[in-house]
């Protein structure tokens, strides 16, 4: 940038431009998204970015957005496209009167970006541990080397009770599957490095915790998933998640039928039914 330490402040966050990075500081105000408050601040190396855009926002605002290279940020990798627009940590919303200033910084930033395409390693640091959160059926904790699930008698399935509380060294893991608690069947599942079969439904899998109303919120469960994923990648090549977790077509058909029954009973909205059905079909 033209000067180190230049700051562009917007709603809920401020970007500080350095010669080799952008430091994003998130506010802790009552209206700031909880995920931003949980992240606090993030230093994003310019090598992790491949573009920047400026577009009109809502109600007299403009939006400056940094485009992150695929595979560069464990938080976005864990989120897998499930974050809602207002929860995107790389969007800076500004008053419309700052559009000229925002365009200046966007141009300056573009001129410094030299990388594009998938990154071969994480370039943005994941959330710091230790971390923990309460899911519907248990408490998940991570100390940097081991993930632990302690089951709640009020929510855990009999399969999980029989298996007992679980401990998973990251050296035995190949990846993490996070399904947003804001979607149908939200959960956090740990994927085995050896690709061993796991129950299709998270509530029957001792390597998964399920979310529910008020349990496993995004601002707690997503940073947790990102921290675990970063630790897994740091300890060796990640197992092919898609191959390790590919569904049996018959199981997909059963789950779609079950989803249809919930839809007919009015327990799932039309939108939720369409979204989840598409997700299930994509797993074939």
TrEMBL record:
The signal sequence is none
Reading the lineage from the top rank, the first entry is Bacteria
Where do the DUF4429 domain residues begin and end? 15-109, 140-228
Task: Quote the InterPro entries the UniProt record gives.
Answer: DUF4429, SHOCT
SHOCT domain residues are 254-281
One Pfam family of this protein, by short name?
SHOCT
What name does this protein carry?
DUF4429 domain-containing protein
Q: Give the organism, scientific name.
A: Streptomyces glaucescens
């Amino acid at each position: 940038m033209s000067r180190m330490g230049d700051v562009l402040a917007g709603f809920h966050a401020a970007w500080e431009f350095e010669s080799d990075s952008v430091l994003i500081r998130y506010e802790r105000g009552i209206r700031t998204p909880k995920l931003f408050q949980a992240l606090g601040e993030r230093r994003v190396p310019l090598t992790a970015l491949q573009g920047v855009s400026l577009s009109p926002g809502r109600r007299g605002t403009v939006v400056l957005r940094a485009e992150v290279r695929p595979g560069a940020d464990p938080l976005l990798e864990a989120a897998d496209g499930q974050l809602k627009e207002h929860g995107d940590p790389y969007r800076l919303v500004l008053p419309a009167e700052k559009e000229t200033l925002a365009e200046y910084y966007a141009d300056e930033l573009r001129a410094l970006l030299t990388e594009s395409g998938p990154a071969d390693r994480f370039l943005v640091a994941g959330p710091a541990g230790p971390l923990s959160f309460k899911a519907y059926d248990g408490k998940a904790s991570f100390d940097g080397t081991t993930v632990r699930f302690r089951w709640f008698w009020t929510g855990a399935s009999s399969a999980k009770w029989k298996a007992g509380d679980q401990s998973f060294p990251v050296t035995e893991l190949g990846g993490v599957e996070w399904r947003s608690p804001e979607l149908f069947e939200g959960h956090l599942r740990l994927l085995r490095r050896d690709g061993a079969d796991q129950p299709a439904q998270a509530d029957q899998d001792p390597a998964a915790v399920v979310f529910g109303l008020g349990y496993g919120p995004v601002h707690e469960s997503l940073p947790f998933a990102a921290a675990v994923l970063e630790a897994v990648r740091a300890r060796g090549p990640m197992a092919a998640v898609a191959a390790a977790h590919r569904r049996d077509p018959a199981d997909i058909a059963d789950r779609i039928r079950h989803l249809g029954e919930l839809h007919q009973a009015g327990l799932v909205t039309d939108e939720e039914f369409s979204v989840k059905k598409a997700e299930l079909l994509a797993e074939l």
